[in-house]
Amino acid sequence: MAGTVFLLTASVGSSIALAQETIAPEGYSIRTIETPEGVRFGVTGLDIDTDGVVWVATRIGDVWYNQNGEWSQFASGLHEPTGLLRDDDGSIVVAQKPELTRLVDVDGDWKADEFHQITSGFEFHDNYHEYHYGPLKDARGYYYGALNLDHRAPGTFSLGAMGSSGGYRGWTYRVHPDGTFEPWASGMRSPAGMGMSPRGELFYIDNQGDWVGTSKLHLIEKGKFFGHPVSLVDRGFSVEHIRGATTDDLDRLRQEPVVWIPHNEVANSPGNPEWDTTQGGFGPFAGQIFVGDQTQSNIFRISLQKVKGVYQGMVVNFMNGFQSGNIRLRFHPDGSLWVGQTGRGWASKGGRPYGMQKVVWDGTNPFEIRDIKLTDTGFAISFTEELDRSLIDLDTVSVSRFRYPYRSDYGSPKTDVEHLDVQSTHLLVDRKTLSVKVPLMTGRVYEFEINRLRSASGRKVSVSQAFYTVNNLISP
Description:
It is a single chain. The protein is an all-beta fold. It folds into two domains: 28-361, 6 Propeller (Neuraminidase), CATH 2.120.10; 369-470, Immunoglobulin-like (Sandwich), CATH 2.60.40.1220. It has two helices and 35 strands. The chain has an eight-stranded antiparallel beta sheet with strand order 21-22-23-24-35-34-30-31, with no helix packed on it. The protein has a four-stranded antiparallel beta sheet with strand order 1-27-26-25, with no helix packed on it.
């Protein structure tokens, strides 16, 4: 599914468990959901309605629902769907490879009776990597989806491993309420995760690979270009023009990510961003974004900050030890976080080829990095509990910075790496926030290591490393 994992030669249904160190904030635990016996239950689409019914699309083309702890099949025969939405009218909208489809239960027996095409305004050329993600729906009734590039398809236009045969591969699209298909934005490589913020803003996460130095989060806006050049064939650029463009030419066209997600240290193959709207029902991270990763079998957190009208922010690991590759997340009305999992023949640290789990919080306040915000002189690092002030000095926090260059190669190393001298540190009046003064620069990812800190009660954080992407500075 995501283009940054390791292909196996094992038989179908097998996977490989990779070694991992356990990360678990105090008070959080993983519970495994039993899935239908004998079914290859690789979850690639997930939604939960207001009644708590869990709806799932599987990679093999089925739609299931879980009501009162029991699974039942709603539909089958779809073409490798990788996204699902329960619509306002109770129908199920599925992003399958060749089209966006509405499944309707006409007679009320909880089985799909009719399949209606919402759109097929894009092209599908039968390449295994031409995934179709989404859908999302905004308050005005528009649907949005995202289209993966192909992988080494014969005769395709490519500038690396990924290519396009046209038909809006590497694009997001919008479908009007009257069914009109509208190309929306371009330059995606493997946009395996789409999400809509509580404010109705559209975001996507791309996976590391050619033209993508490391996985990244973007705000999607109409007409924007996000960096992978082959999709420009559907914006009126000729193949000769694109091949002749320099990296600098393309760099001037592209949008910078909201947040860079460091490869291996945080994620390899991330899925959809899911906002915590539980208002504290899932612990002290309300309003933040949770994302699962297929390779790492983990979940990480993102916290956004808008500076001079542009988003940027923090990314930090949250929890690992899941049984399979985490690709779809959704919060349940009871405050738990459901995790849809699949391997699809790629390796994941969890080892199992598919499944479903959920994360529950027992009310215990963990001691963790809660957030990092840019200030006019450095950063404010906030924690979930008061800090032991006796341990705070200039060596309390180690800070470095680096960047990911834009280039055609598969992924990118960190470049321009600098270790920074911390100029000052002081504890704010809430005793939970540490102000750190360091030199600031745009276009850099700042890395923080805080393993010397302890809470006032003597606890140590489960994750001591965090990253912050700086797109704008507060001061001129």
